[in-house]
Write a structure and sequence with these properties.
The complex is a heterodimer of chains A (298) and B (380). With 298 residues, chain A is of the alpha/beta class. Chain A contains ten helices and 14 strands. Chain A folds into two domains: 125 residues, Rossmann fold (3-Layer(aba) Sandwich); 148 residues, Rossmann fold. In chain A, 61% of the residues are buried. With 380 residues, chain B is α+β, with helices and mostly antiparallel strands. Chain B has three domains: 73 residues, ATP-grasp fold, A domain (Dna Ligase, domain 1); 101 residues, ATP-grasp fold, B domain (D-amino Acid Aminotransferase, Chain A, domain 1), CATH 3.30.470.20; 165 residues, Rossmann fold, CATH 3.40.50.261. Chain B contains ten helices and 16 strands. Chain B is elongated. The relative contact order of chain B is 0.09. The chains are: A alpha/beta (298), B alpha+beta (380).
Chain lengths: 298, 380
């Protein structure tokens, strides 16, 4: 089993004719994921690596009604209309890599998505990978590299950082383990899919025996995990690293690292770790330690 | 970007939110002229800082004569407010206060929608107001207009939406004894990522670090400007007081590595991160500025196993800088990802031709462990 993706997932790429869109289409296809269509207004009828391009999401969905996931590769100023187009056409999962989307645009898209029960993963998400099943987006890099880093296993991986999704998955592999699914949730202030959302999916996933999270200072999302565990909606072993202890020397309101990593009252790395520890979460002092913490449960 | 009070109030005025009469006094201005220009006897002088509690830290002073205004202005301009640099002094009409309220709109991360917070017990930190005296209301960002009988709520909503703000706060919102509503303070944080639809955003350089931005910070800030601003970022640099230069890749790795650097007892000369596969030129510009800081004792270049960042291309940006600067201090590199072999080769060639004291690691070693390697090289 896996979360969010399996071998049957059919994927649309919005912005497929651009450099990043082509890179993503290739990354997904070489990992065995079915990229069935692309969108680029004005370029309908063309093909990219054999994938048909449509002028609009509506046209693509009409030709391929079983598209279940779309990935969005457009510049930040074009992100909102692209995401809304996917929502209007009822694609159940939207992954967007786009960084630096204005917060207001993200909030707008999330409100529209929620009304239709559509899941948005991102913004600023490189995607997710379920070894042996497929991947969405570019997480893991070129196939040869992805195969060095990922192998099917029992550890779920969640990270605020794209680079650290890969790095952490690599540390898991080095320890002789594998990953069930690894998800880059993105580093923005507003997260479409949060740690808690994913932990609920990992809870149901039989393949996943334990989960590791790379978190950061700023925002309140780690506190949702505390609630989830208190309500017994997540019961598997969980190890968390919260980066950004150094940031406490900076004044409140300052932003260091990702867009969501804002120094704030009650949101420091230390405060998050204390709250998580109180409900039995394993706290790692360094990101490498996440693996040794989780090893006995794998 | 956090705004100064006077900048926030200028935005408020555009949305029909009243503020009291005021003049802005800069360091170079003549205090007498400014006080006369305002033409009001009883005034309040307020330090213009980006964060911090001014009231409790002598950042707000009252005056009723030329002599008192001069003394107060000089006092504020020569101080710093809890580590915050005072950019200017706002001299304002003193109000006859009947009530002090609190009003703000920001994003609630749990609901991922805006939240309006209002209290009739304003004038103090909202965290210190008892919960039962606070009114919270969620709004859908898709609403163009809101219905509310809270003073200035509709105006502040328009301000929040149209200004692409992250936070707008009026505290205190004063009701005068004449029944007038006045925003007596303004705390506004704008969303930098919305700059492309705000040609009017043209603010003076700032940092929240209690000082003016350094020359290096200003230079780095320009790297990500221009048409291709979103094609990788290399414009992040905070100058710090340590002596280890750092060049980190990726927001998450940079945070983990800053923590790791402090854990091994080294002190960063800067915080810097580039990510999203920036072109060689951007990385070279950034690296040259990072290496230009005097008094460095080491350089740590570290990042995780990249997904798609081209290690060779970004390393070329760094070797461009190393070829120019030729540092004599130890350099440790840890990086992996696409084209890592070529990247490693480029670095080794660069070390050879410049006779650098450089060690390079790949993914066989975790990032944190290479900080220890740098400590060893510095101590030998």
């Amino acid at each position: 089993m896996s979360i969010l993706i399996n071998k049957n997932t059919k994927v649309l790429v919005q912005g497929i004719t651009g450099k990043e869109g082509q890179k993503a289409a290739t990354a997904m296809r070489e990992y065995g994921t079915q990229v069935v269509a692309g969108v680029r207004p004005g370029k309908g009828g063309e093909t990219v690596y054999g994938v048909p391009v449509f002028n609009s999401v509506a046209e693509a969905v009409e030709a391929f009604p079983d598209i279940s996931t779309t990935t969005i590769y457009v510049p930040p100023f074009a992100a909102k209309p692209a995401i809304l187009e996917a929502i209007e056409n009822n694609i159940p999962i939207i992954n967007t890599i786009v960084e630096r989307i204005p917060i207001q645009d993200t909030a707008y898209c999330l409100a529209a998505a929620r009304e239709k029960n559509i899941r948005l993963i991102g913004p600023s998400s490189l995607g997710y990978i379920s070894p042996g099943e497929g991947r969405i987006g570019v997480v893991g890099g070129p196939k040869a590299l992805a195969n060095q880093v990922f192998q099917p296993g029992s550890i779920g991986v969640i990270s605020r950082s794209g680079g650290m999704t890969n790095e952490l998955s690599w540390q898991i592999r080095r320890a002789g383990l594998g990953q069930s699914s690894a998800v880059h949730v993105g580093g923005d202030l507003l997260m479409g899919t949060t740690y808690a959302d994913l932990l609920k999916l990992f809870e149901k996933d039989e393949q996943t025996k334990a989960v590791v999270i790379f978190g950061e200072h700023g925002g309140n999302y780690e506190f949702e995990i505390v609630d989830l565990i208190n309500k017994k909606e997540f019961t598997k072993p969980l190890a968390v690293y919260v980066g950004g202890k150094f940031a406490s020397v900076f004044p409140e309101g300052m932003n260091i690292g990702h867009a969501g990593a804002i120094v704030g009252k009650g949101q420091s790395a230390d405060e998050k770790e204390r709250a998580l520890k109180s409900v039995g979460v394993l706290i790692a002092d360094t990101y490498e330690d996440l693996v040794s913490k989780i090893l006995p449960y794998a | 970007m956090n705004l100064y009070e006077f900048e926030g109030k200028n935005i408020f005025k555009n949305f029909g939110i009243n503020t009291q009469k005021s003049v802005l006094l800069r360091r170079e201005d003549n205090i007498e002229e400014k006080y006369n220009e305002l033409g009001i006897k009883d005034v309040v002088l307020k330090a213009q800082v980006l964060s911090g509690k001014r009231g409790k830290n002598n950042g707000i002073l009252f005056a009723s004569s030329m002599q008192e205004v001069k003394e107060a202005a000089e006092k504020i301009l020569s101080s710093n407010i809890r580590g915050q640099y005072v950019a200017a002094v706002l001299i304002e009409e003193r109000l006859k206060i009947a009530q002090e309220h609190y009003l703000s709109i920001t994003y609630d991360t749990a609901k991922r929608q805006p939240i309006l917070i209002y209290s009739q017990a304003g004038g103090m930190d909202i965290e210190d107001v008892p919960e039962e005296k606070i009114k919270k209301q969620y709004f859908d960002i898709r609403q163009n207009d809101i219905e509310s009988d809270i003073p200035f709520a509709k105006e502040l909503w328009q301000c929040f939406l149209q200004s692409d703000a992250r936070v707008v706060e009026i505290n205190p919102l004063i009701i005068t004894s004449d029944g007038e509503k006045i925003a007596a303070d303004a705390k506004v944080a704008l969303d930098d990522d919305a700059f492309f639809r705000h040609k009017e955003w043209n603010f003076e350089p700032r940092t929240m670090l209690g000082r003016l931005p350094t020359e290096r910070e200003n230079l780095v800030g320009k790297i990500d400007e221009g048409e291709n601003y979103y094609r990788g970022t290399a414009g992040k640099y905070i100058e710090m007081d340590g002596d280890i230069a750092v060049l980190f890749s990726g927001g998450g790795a940079s945070i983990a590595n800053m923590d790791a650097l402090l854990q091994v007892g080294l002190r960063p000369a800067n915080y810097t991160e580039y990510s999203g596969n920036p072109p060689r030129e951007k990385v070279a510009q950034l690296a040259k500025i990072v290496l230009s800081k005097p008094g460095l004792r080491g350089l740590w270049i570290a990042g995780g196993v990249a997904n798609f960042t081209d290690i060779a291309a970004t390393f070329q940006g760094i070797t461009d800088a190393l070829d120019e600067v030729k540092p004599a201090y130890p350099i440790v590199i840890r990086r992996a990802g696409p084209n890592e072999e070529e990247g490693k080769h480029l670095m080794e060639e660069c070390a050879k031709r410049n006779n650098l004291n450089l060690k390079i690691f790949g993914k066989e070693v975790a990032m944190g462990a290479t900080a220890t390697a740098l400590v060893d090289m510095i101590n030998n």
